[in-house]
């Protein structure tokens, strides 16, 4: 098609080709990432953070939503990210400028695409390294003006928009400028209500201007209810401004077009039934190369008292602008303190990596939380926790709790627990975690997750310690957090295990106040119940490996003490035979039990949701039982050469593989189970116990499973047959089913039996043999490994296995399994790079091979041969009965378009009239087979194979790429440890560094599709990075970064081994490292060139290149200790883990 020159009126449109460029720049005393010509990119979504309860989600084109605490406290409508981007012209910041030059007035509307091509403009976007400030800039080269606005947050004042208009010419310029924000919500509108009935909400809107102070009040005329009762609206959202010269105020957008036309506008003081806005209009004369600045301040949830306080400050505080600036900077300092407390500060030559590590750490603590202050615990919160956890325990320990000091440490809790005989009190002591700043990862790009940022009480403003998260999300984030707070790892493990069920699974969500589960909601298509199959193994394993490295033998101490409990989730997994019959419908929701649990929780507290024994007491078990129940749940679904059968109505890590449920078999979980068994075997083998006690019912499950595996192990020496598979599955499946149904029906008897250590070790050994055999059987010819397979129950005696295409998840799990040698791992990584999973444009990996779905007109065509093979189909056609199929005008046959799957087809077949029943009886299977042959629904993996974003076709899911990074890194370190050849080590390192670069911190903004120093969830084909911030990727990246730096803990001692840290990370010149010490004080270290600095447990560690190898540890008492090696002794390591304050800094001398 020929390119045409476009004219706007008589003038040629200006559409220059401008390069998108990314660079880090200094503005004031902060580093910002600048994207030049950001408007040349596709709009992308950004999360602006704060140290408090603000939230702002903003598109790179300026569209936004913002508020405090949650989506029901919005200042702008909380819509999905696509709608927010599309609403940039009508929501958020809006500026219109009349530029007076001679006898002409020029109209300029910065950031609006309405006037595209009229002026020579450039748009730039800046985001500071801390993630809490963003600047939008438009430069109008024709008019010689530059306009910027910046979003900031203040705990006291809310959201602050700073505006700057600069004259870039050598002549004075006169302007009339309208600047402000629009589509302001009144207070008290729930997000769901706004989304569904925004027109009704408009009818209740009342916008008022306090003329003397210029303060805008945006409220409802009454709370919107449909009850026959009055409901006063006594709270409002507010906006006011500072630094504006003789303004005219507008509190709606009604006069914007009047201003655009150059006509006179009039101040608005009372607007009803219109969308709120707040604009100031002022006349400015700006000297050459000078600028004018002003600010607008917006807040939610204001009452008459707070409004009067603000009005008083506007009238009587001449330094109010400086007060607001101080509040903004104080917020930044507090944000840095939060991140510093989780070791988010690093300084090396590679500034983008420093920034990305800060961002990773920030988003990790935003989801998982951060501990309030080292290991300090506040009595008030501790008592409040007990009162909500178990009212009976609280009542019995009230005096003991009252005698505690106002502040104490986690050591005090552990001592209390150790000395007390009440097992429930002990358990609750261990479970207590004083976390804050946590929220679920909800935002407009993840609207299905509802977030709430609970930082301050709305009653008295006091600090709130709280956490909440989906199961796997919060425990993932805690894995990274534990490295900064090792003393809390025991509490994390107790919280994890005490929220798992006796049948080996976990509820959906974990909170400070307990846990909860999903229920079926009739009108919600996303509503469903089930258990994710991988959560219990891999996430728990990482905690267990951690505590064994930091605190050797601590696990063994819990082997015998009955400190653990089971969650009582009202799901009942169906019997093995029922599951075989219909593996996609395997869990019943017990409404009666759910009601009973709710009543118990209301009466007792969170402990009301714990499993009771036959005597109605909270049932208690030891650590061995909890771990064994988890392992046996997986083994009871083991299919030789297939993996772990996925039959609990939910998939695994990849939610989009939702249709694998039922027929799917997971090699991913089997690989992680192999690693889990190696670990479990190791800690049991070195324990001093000869026997352990477990519940009698679990003991029977264990013995039956062990017998099944032992009795058939000869099959491991040959190719497994379909009959072999069914034999093993029957044995372990029936054992699990019998155990579950016994407890569902009767509960535990509270009778314990002894299991010999030798039997446990025998179980580990034989199970590992089966796992290893199956892993080997799933090796593909291209050196990759199958991730998920499909099982088919062929008949009563046989189960067959078929294979799906390769998936990234399978390679990550086998690389992490501990099964491969470094050379075998290298072969997997080589095969992965050469596979269809490698996406060259991003130099990274997609989850599964991309594929073209059939065009609409190519779907649902029944081959004539298939139609002719069926008497029933031919009879229906002859009778012109279109219930099942139709023939189109071209002669092609098609199934009824209402059949979205075989179940719908079968339902309609069953409704055919009596005359067709004899043929149907004979041919029902044939017709269903014809349908299946056309659509291959058995191989249907779910959303993953049908959509094009998120975890869909052609999409990179960055969390899995970062899991690949960690897995590759583990094999690099293993190769170094086992003295592999330099070639093997070097090639493994090449893969590691390539995967790391593919993640994108050094990519251009145009390629990455966003700020490359920010983490994002996924990158679909043809789009940039999507879903900012709170992704599980950040945890993996934090761990990979620390291992890359070379911080390891073994046998309770800290080792420094920066084998993977590249030379270019060391400083080329002297720089100051500003950090926060464990007391919360800001400190500065002057680093020499050839240094790299980071914190560990908030203690600064300086790597210094040197001609010697060793360490120097500096203490608070000004003494120091030197080492001629890179391993700290256990005493110093313990001080660091405990954050005792004794260690001031560590210098590690690196001989390179």
Q: Strand count, sense and closure of the main sheet?
A: 11 strands, antiparallel
For the termini, the CA-CA separation is 60 Å
Total strands: the figure is: 56
The coarse overall form would be globular
Q: Pick out the low-confidence regions.
A: none
Strand content: 15-25%
How would you portray this structure in words?
With 1152 residues, the chain is of the alpha+beta class. It contains 33 helices and 56 strands. The strands form 17 sheets. It has an 11-stranded antiparallel β-sheet with strand order 3-4-10-11-12-13-21-17-16-15-19. Strands 22-52-53-56-54-55 form a 6-stranded mixed β-sheet. A 5-stranded antiparallel β-sheet has the order 9-8-14-20-18. Strand 43 (885-887) and strand 44 (893-895) form a beta hairpin. The model has no long low-confidence stretch (mean pLDDT 96).
């Amino acid at each position: 098609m020929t390119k045409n020159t476009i004219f706007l009126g008589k003038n040629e449109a200006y559409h220059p080709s401008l390069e998108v460029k990314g660079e880090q720049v200094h503005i004031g005393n902060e580093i910002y990432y600048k994207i030049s010509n950001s408007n040349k990119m596709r709009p992308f979504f950004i999360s602006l953070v704060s140290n408090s309860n603000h939230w702002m989600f903003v598109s790179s084109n300026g569209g936004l939503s913002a508020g405090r605490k949650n989506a029901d406290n919005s200042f702008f409508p909380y819509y999905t990210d696509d709608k927010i981007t599309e609403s940039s012209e009508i929501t958020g910041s809006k500026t219109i400028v009349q530029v007076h030059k001679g006898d002409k007035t020029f109209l300029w509307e910065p950031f609006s695409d309405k006037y595209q091509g009229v002026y020579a403009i450039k748009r730039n976007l800046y985001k500071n390294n801390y993630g809490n400030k963003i600047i939008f800039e438009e430069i109008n080269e024709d008019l010689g003006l530059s306009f910027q606005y910046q979003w900031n947050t203040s705990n006291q004042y809310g959201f602050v928009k700073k505006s700057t208009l600069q004259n870039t010419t050598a002549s004075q310029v006169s302007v009339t400028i309208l600047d402000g924000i629009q589509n302001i919500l009144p207070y008290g509108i729930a997000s769901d209500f706004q989304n569904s009935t925004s027109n009704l909400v408009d009818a209740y809107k009342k916008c008022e201007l306090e003329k003397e102070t210029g303060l805008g009040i945006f409220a409802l005329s009454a709370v919107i209810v449909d009850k026959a009762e009055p409901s006063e609206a006594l709270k409002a959202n507010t906006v006011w401004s500072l630094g504006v010269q003789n303004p005219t105020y507008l509190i709606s957008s009604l006069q914007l077009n009047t201003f655009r036309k150059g006509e006179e506008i009039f101040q608005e003081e009372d607007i009803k039934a219109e969308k709120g806005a707040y604009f100031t209009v002022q006349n400015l004369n700006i000297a050459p190369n000078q600028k004018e600045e002003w600010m607008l301040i917006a807040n939610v949830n204001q009452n008459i008292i707070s409004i009067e306080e603000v009005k008083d400050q506007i009238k009587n505080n001449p330094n109010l602008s400086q007060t607001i600036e101080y509040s903004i900077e104080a917020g930044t300092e507090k944000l840095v303190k939060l991140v510093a407390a989780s070791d988010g500060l690093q300084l090396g030559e590679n500034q983008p990596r420093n920034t990305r590590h800060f961002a990773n750490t920030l988003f990790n603590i935003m989801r998982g939380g951060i501990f309030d202050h080292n290991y300090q615990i506040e009595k008030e919160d501790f008592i409040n926790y007990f009162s909500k956890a178990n009212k009976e325990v609280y009542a019995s320990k009230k005096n003991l709790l009252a005698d505690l000091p106002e502040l104490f440490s986690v050591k005090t809790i552990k001592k209390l627990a150790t000395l007390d005989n009440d097992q429930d009190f002990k358990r609750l002591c261990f479970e207590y975690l004083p976390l804050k700043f946590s929220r679920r990862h909800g935002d407009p790009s993840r609207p299905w997750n509802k977030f709430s940022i609970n930082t301050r009480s709305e009653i008295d403003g006091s600090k709130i310690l709280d956490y909440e998260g989906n199961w796997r999300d919060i425990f993932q984030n805690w894995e990274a957090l534990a490295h900064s707070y090792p003393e809390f790892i025991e509490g994390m493990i107790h919280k994890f295990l005490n929220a798992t069920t006796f049948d080996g699974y976990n509820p959906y969500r974990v909170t400070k106040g307990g846990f909860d589960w999903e229920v079926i909601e009739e009108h919600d298509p996303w509503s469903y119940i089930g258990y994710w199959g991988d959560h219990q193994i891999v996430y728990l394993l990482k905690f267990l490996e951690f505590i064994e490295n930091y605190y050797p033998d601590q696990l063994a101490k819990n082997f015998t003490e009955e400190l653990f409990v089971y969650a009582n989730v009202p799901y009942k997994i169906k019997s093995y035979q029922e599951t075989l019959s219909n593996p996609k419908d395997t869990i019943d929701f017990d409404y009666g039990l759910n009601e009973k649990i709710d009543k118990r929780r209301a009466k007792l507290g969170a402990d009301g949701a714990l499993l009771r024994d036959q005597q109605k007491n909270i049932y208690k078990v030891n650590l061995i039982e909890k771990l064994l129940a988890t392992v046996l749940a997986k083994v009871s679904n083991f299919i030789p050469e297939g993996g772990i059968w996925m039959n609990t109505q939910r998939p695994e890590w990849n939610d989009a593989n939702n249709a694998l449920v039922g027929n799917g078999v997971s090699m991913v979980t089997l690989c992680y189970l192999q690693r889990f068994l190696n670990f479990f075997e190791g800690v049991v083998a070195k324990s001093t116990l000869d026997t352990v006690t477990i519940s009698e019912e679990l003991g029977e499950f264990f013995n039956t499973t062990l017998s099944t595996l032992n009795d058939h192990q000869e099959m491991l020496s040959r190719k497994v047959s379909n009959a072999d598979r069914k034999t093993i599955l029957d044995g372990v499946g029936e054992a699990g089913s019998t155990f579950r149904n016994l407890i569902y029906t009767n509960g535990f008897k509270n009778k314990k039996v002894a299991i010999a250590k030798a039997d446990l070790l025998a179980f580990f050994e034989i199970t590992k043999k089966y796992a290893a055999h199956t892993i080997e059987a799933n090796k593909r010819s291209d050196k990759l490994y199958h991730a998920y397979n499909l099982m088919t129950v062929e008949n009563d005696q046989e189960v067959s296995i078929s294979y799906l295409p390769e998936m990234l998840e399978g390679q990550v799990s086998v690389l992490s399994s501990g099964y491969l040698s470094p050379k075998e791992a290298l072969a997997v990584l080589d095969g992965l790079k050469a596979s269809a999973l490698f996406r060259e444009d991003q130099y990274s990996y997609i989850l599964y091979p991309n594929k073209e779905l059939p065009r609409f007109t190519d779907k649902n065509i029944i081959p004539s041969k298939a139609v002719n093979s069926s008497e029933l189909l031919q009879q229906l056609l002859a009778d012109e009965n279109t219930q099942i199929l139709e023939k189109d005008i071209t002669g092609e046959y098609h199934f009824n378009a209402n059949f979205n799957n075989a179940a719908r087809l079968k339902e309609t077949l069953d409704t055919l009239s009596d005359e067709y029943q004899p043929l149907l009886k004979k041919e029902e299977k044939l017709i269903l087979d014809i349908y299946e042959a056309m659509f291959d629904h058995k191989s249907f993996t779910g959303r993953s194979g049908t959509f094009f974003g998120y975890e869909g076709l052609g999409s990179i899911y960055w969390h899995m790429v970062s899991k690949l990074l960690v897995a590759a890194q583990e094999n690099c370190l293993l190769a170094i440890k086992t003295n592999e050849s330099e070639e093997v080590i070097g090639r493994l390192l090449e893969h590691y560094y390539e995967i790391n670069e593919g993640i994108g911190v050094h990519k251009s903004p145009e390629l990455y599709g966003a700020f490359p120093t920010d983490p994002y969830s996924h990158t679909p084909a043809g789009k940039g990075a999507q879903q900012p911030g709170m992704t599980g990727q950040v945890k993996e990246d934090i761990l990979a970064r620390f291992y890359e730096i070379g911080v390891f803990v073994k046998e309770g001692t800290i080792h420094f081994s920066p084998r993977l840290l590249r030379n270019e990370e060391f400083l080329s010149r002297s720089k100051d490292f500003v950090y926060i010490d464990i007391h919360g004080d800001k400190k500065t270290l002057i680093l020499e060139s050839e240094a790299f600095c980071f914190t560990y447990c908030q203690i600064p560690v300086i790597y210094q290149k040197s001609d010697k190898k060793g360490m120097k540890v500096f203490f608070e008492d000004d003494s120091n200790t030197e080492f001629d090696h890179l391993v700290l002794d256990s005493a110093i390591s313990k001080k660091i883990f405990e954050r005792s304050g004794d260690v001031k800094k560590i210098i590690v001398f690196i001989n390179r």
